[in-house]
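Dear H.,

Thanks for agreeing to be a second pair of eyes. The structure we're designing against is below in token form, covering all 155 positions.
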């Protein structure tokens, strides 16, 4: 590493410690020539996760966009922002764990609905009604029947 003070191409690490929930390492360095001390940060470079939309367009996965949809579905429901943030992080973690650079938007939506149904059923129905674009009341009723069936099977 080049010293920012004298441009000498030799430094030694004086101290290292994890930061940002162990996602980065902060290193204190010292120039071997002029003894100038400075700090560097090291973090994993994540490959972008691309979402392939229904019509074929592609965009980078947005944690914020998923969170906004969840917040909207959970308005006036007893679901904390922290719960929603954890849900979004779990989804992103699972998507990255799959190892694919591209994921279908349908897969992301299904993952969101699967997890949301375990957090709040009303929010799940709200999210599903927008996501699946319910055309009429019968589709809505079918979705509610499926929830009720799942509830009775889990008891």
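And this is the sequence the design step returned. I haven't edited it by hand at all.
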């Amino acid at each position: 590493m080049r010293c920012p003070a004298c441009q000498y191409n030799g430094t030694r690490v004086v101290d290292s410690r994890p930061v940002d929930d162990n996602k980065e390492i902060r290193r204190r360095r010292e120039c071997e020539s002029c003894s100038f001390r400075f700090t560097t940060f090291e973090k994993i470079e994540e490959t972008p996760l691309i979402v392939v939309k229904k019509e074929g367009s592609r965009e980078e996965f947005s944690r914020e966009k998923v969170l906004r949809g969840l917040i909207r579905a959970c308005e006036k429901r007893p679901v904390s922002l922290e719960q929603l943030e954890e849900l979004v992080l779990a989804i992103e973690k699972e998507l990255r764990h799959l190892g694919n650079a591209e994921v279908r938007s349908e897969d992301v939506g299904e993952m969101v609905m699967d997890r949301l149904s375990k957090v709040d059923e009303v929010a799940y129905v709200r999210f599903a009604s927008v996501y699946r674009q319910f055309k009429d009341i019968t589709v809505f009723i079918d979705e509610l029947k499926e929830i009720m069936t799942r509830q009775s099977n889990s008891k």
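Two observations from my side: The mean pLDDT is 89. Strands lie at 11-19, 24-31, 37-43, 50-52, 58-60, 102-104.

Warmly,
E.
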